[in-house]
Write a structure and sequence with these properties.
Blueprint: E1 51-61, H1 62-72, H2 85-97, H3 108-135, H4 143-146, H5 151-156, H6 161-170, E2 178-187, E3 194-204, H7 209-218, E4 223-229
Antiparallel strand pairs: 1-3, 1-4, 2-3
């Protein structure tokens, strides 16, 4: 069952129309005021991720909408640095030799070989993510493209408390958006020389209100109308 918005993410009564300010596109010094929170356990983590569907309608001058469309497209992934692979190798090796459930383990030589194979798979996957993050534009509305996770946090990893705090503070969610689609750009018939984009996406547990507020401030000529679908019982 999808939950209604809590006090942490309650939308304005008339929809999402935050205050305006800043320059269109990504301003100089972008991210300077987006600082990580304290290194503490994630207070909003849920036992099981609940994916919420949203519609996002972006309207404004046609030229600005076109620029935003190009700026928002990315890979839809965050290029986190891998943790200490040597340490993980040893942890996998020990688990394969002495499984936590008490079942018979592998011989040391076989366990070491399998641990190396797993490490190679992890490294290959990570290289693919890095390449996709730099080149791919398959995700039409990518939070990491619009509000990049700072390099210092990418190096600390996805599960670091400071990284989780930054994501909560600046995106409002700790996972990239999923199943992101774009209906296409069309004229806004209410105004001449205007256009609109319609996105659909699913977010983890919450509506990304902080991220949408930051994006609105960076694109003051556009209007962002977010429509969460919390479902019904």
């Amino acid at each position: 069952m999808r939950r209604p918005p809590s006090q942490h993410q309650a939308p304005p009564a008339s929809g999402f129309v935050p205050e305006r300010g800043g320059e269109g596109g990504r301003p100089d010094g972008w991210g300077a005021d987006l600082v990580p929170g304290p290194a503490a356990p994630d207070p909003m983590a849920l036992p099981q991720t609940d994916w919420l569907r949203h519609d996002l309608i972006v309207t404004g001058p046609a030229a600005t909408v076109e620029k935003f469309e190009a700026a928002a497209a990315g890979a839809g992934v965050v290029p986190w640095w891998e943790a200490d692979l040597h340490h993980e190798d040893e942890a996998r090796f020990l688990a394969l030799v002495n499984p936590p459930d008490g079942s018979p383990g592998l011989r040391p030589a076989a366990a070491r070989a399998l641990a190396r194979q797993l490490r190679t798979a992890v490294e290959t996957h990570h290289l693919r993510i890095l390449a996709a993050s730099a080149q791919s534009r398959t995700c039409p509305f990518d939070l990491h493209r619009l509000i990049p996770v700072p390099d210092r946090l990418l190096r600390q990893g996805r599960d670091d408390p400071a990284s989780l705090a930054w994501l909560r503070q600046n995106w409002g969610v700790i996972e990239p958006l999923r199943r992101v689609t774009r209906a296409g750009r069309s004229p806004d018939r209410r105004l001449r020389r205007s256009a609109r984009l319609v996105f659909e996406f699913w977010s983890a547990d919450w509506t990304p209100w902080p991220g949408l507020t930051a994006i609105q401030r960076s694109w003051p000529d556009l209007v962002f109308d977010i429509r969460p679908d919390y479902g019904r019982e």
